[in-house]
Amino acid sequence: MTPFWAVITMVLPVLLSGLLIQNIQFKDGALRLILAFSASYLFALTIMHMLPEVYNGPFPKLAGLFIVCGFCLQLVLDAFSTGIEHGHIHTHTDHCHKQFPKGISIGLMIHSFLEGLPVFDPQNPIEPIHANLIVGLGIHHIPITITFMILLKDHGLSILKRQLWLVALSVMGPLGMAFGFLIHDALHAYSVWFSATAYAVVIGIFLHISTAILFESSEGHRYTPAKIFVLLLGVLAAFVLS
Asked: 11 and 167 in contact (C-beta within 8 Å)?
């Protein structure tokens, strides 16, 4: 995958889903199914593709440590984003409706930026751009974008401001990828450390988000036939695409 198509794959799902939500009102059940598919795809992709790759890397003993660090880092980001990455939309008071959700927005931007850091890996001459990771990010950001746009609309932001935030969210992943490239260029011989560390941290983030959605998106911890089908579809998609 070329850098151009990497950027398109990361940006387009965010823009399309964000523009779609402007005119379509998603029911809670439909959003839960989208989240379930995203979570199962992300979890299966992480287990089947990303984990074996990071443990076959140059620092397998440290991989687990940085995976745990990524998991804990997402816990910290949740304090700012209030779990919007999991599809959570919390009830607000009338006073809260008049306040811009700064913490949520900033936390979400940081989250997207971090996920873009390990996309480019010059140490891998066969696949310098992680295509599977990029596809996973594209699918993962669809429910996030829908939830974020619903939240901004709920807080009374104008269409123009919502679109500006949508554009900002769409470019955070590519900005993370560009920043990762600059880090590689600056570190030279030590860039392999950065690649392994960033990749492991994102694995931890993915594990936190996917498991949180899988355990929290069900009503009464029960899975309907439709949700089970969607979960299996996500696993199958991850297996085929990876």
From this structure: no
What six digits make up the tokens of 234?
């996500």
pLDDT in tens, 180-197: 888 887 877 677 888 889
- Alpha-carbon distance 67 to 51, whole Å? 9
**Which residue range forms the structural domain that includes residue 62?**
3-241
Structural domains counted in the chain: 1
Return the SS3 of 219. Answer: strand
Distance in angstroms (rounded) separating the CA atoms of residues 112 and 174 = 9
Q: How many CA atoms lie within 13 A of 138 on its CB side?
A: 18
- Strands (E) in 1-73, as ranges, are none
- Catalogue the long-range contacts made by 21-28 (C-beta closer than 8 Å, 24 or more residues apart): 21/145, 21/146, 21/149, 21/150, 21/153, 22/149, 22/159, 22/162, 26/146, 26/150
Give the Å distances, CA to CA, from 12 to 18, 20, 94, 174: 10, 12, 34, 11
What is the 8-class DSSP label of residue 222?
B
Q: What is residue 87's three-state secondary structure? A: coil
Predicted TM-score (pTM) of the model is 0.83
Convert 27-48 to b/e letters by CB count within 10 Å (16 or more is b).
eeeebbbbbbbbbbbbbbbbbe
